[in-house]
Design brief:
The strands form three sheets. The protein has an eight-stranded parallel β-sheet with strand order 11-10-9-8-5-4-3-12, with helices on one face. Helix content is 36%, strand content 13%. By secondary structure, the chain is an alpha/beta fold. The longest helix is centred in the C-terminal third of the chain and has 16 residues.
């Protein structure tokens, strides 16, 4: 399979329709490099962790039925679970793709650099890691391939040349970065431009209403100047921005301790109050409003959110249909300052 570089509007078979077109269900697509993605990226971290394969298949089916096509995972998911070794999420997604026969309709994003057997960003690690991911995903190409964590022991020319080789070989359509400094992102983009290599088209930062300084500022400025799209993770702050964590409540969740920490800050309750006000005005869920704020931020193309059950999906998918007013966006922005 021949890979093309990122100059034309052609849409690869890993996406649906032309960039910016609507999916069969009516959800508008957004261009991401040569790809075309839905406005909500479904996080795959729960697959093979808090959702078994049957539950995961149900969530994936419902996500696609609701207009979604952009699935995010990583080779390390979920190595942190006792008995797991990493790759469980990719394996579930690969089994689902094979069972449904829908590979050409789905944009698959995965990551390299954090799997216990493939740590770091040396050229050899990247090339071994991609082959392992392709095998688990049961596909011949990855649509969006992230460097999961920057590895400053490896020079930019080494890992970017390795990533470019994967694009030229047809194993990867587009490349992206996660957990990278503004300086290294800028250096990487400059190197790609100078050498005519594949360039990062997306950035996956930690970014949400209660964690803004993890992206805003220098990193967001580099992304904006270079036309790099942001695909934020922890978009709902480990569930805090769904509103289910309130003073005096107990939530049975693998992530409850992390989400509960936001209640102890001044910002957390202030953000919840603003979300309550906007959600009431739209008869919407708090999660939908939090995602809509994020989707309206400069550079953001699609927030990532995960669902352990089908019941959790509607409030996430509804971000495609909720447009907040300037006053509402300002209210949320000021509450989260």
């Amino acid at each position: 399979m021949t890979a093309t570089h990122h100059t034309g509007p052609a849409t690869p078979s890993g996406s649906s329709g032309t960039p910016g077109s609507a999916s069969p269900s009516g959800t508008a697509r957004k261009p991401l490099g040569s790809l075309s993605v839905s406005p909500l990226s479904l996080g795959g971290n729960v697959f093979g962790w808090t959702a078994d394969e049957a539950e995961s298949f149900a969530v994936l089916d419902a996500y696609v039925a609701g207009g979604g096509n952009f699935i995010d995972t990583a080779d390390v998911y979920s190595a942190w679970v006792p008995g797991n070794k990493g790759g469980e999420s990719e394996t579930v997604i690969g089994n689902w793709l094979a069972a449904r026969g829908n590979r050409d309709d789905i944009v698959i994003a995965t990551k390299v650099g954090a799997h216990p057997d493939f740590k770091g960003l040396s050229a050899a690690t990247i090339k071994a890691g991609v082959d392992a991911s392709l095998a688990r995903l049961r596909t011949d190409h990855i649509d969006l391939y992230y460097t999961h964590y920057d590895d400053e022991s490896v020079e930019v020319p080494e890992f970017l040349t390795a990533l470019d080789d994967l694009v030229r070989a047809g194993k990867v359509r587009e490349i992206a970065a996660s957990n990278i400094s503004a300086a290294r992102l800028s250096e990487s983009l400059d190197f790609s431009r100078r050498e005519g290599l594949a360039r990062y088209v997306a950035l996956q930062p930690h970014y949400n209403l209660v964690s803004r300084d993890t992206y805003e500022g220098e990193l967001a400025d580099v992304a904006a100047r270079n036309g790099v799209a942001a695909v934020p993770y922890y978009a709902l702050a480990s569930g805090f921005l769904t509103g289910k964590y309130r003073p005096g409540t107990t939530v049975d969740s693998a992530r409850s301790s992390k989400a509960g920490e936001y209640l102890a800050t001044d910002r957390g309750p202030r953000v919840l109050a603003a979300l309550d006000e906007v959600a009431q005005a739209h008869d919407a869920e708090l999660a939908t409003v939090a995602l809509a704020w994020l989707a309206a931020r400069p550079t953001v193309i699609a927030p990532i959110a995960s669902a352990r059950t089908v019941a959790q999906l509607p409030s996430l998918l509804a971000v495609a249909d909720l447009t907040l007013t300037e006053a509402e966006l300002t209210l949320l922005t000021e509450a989260s300052a």
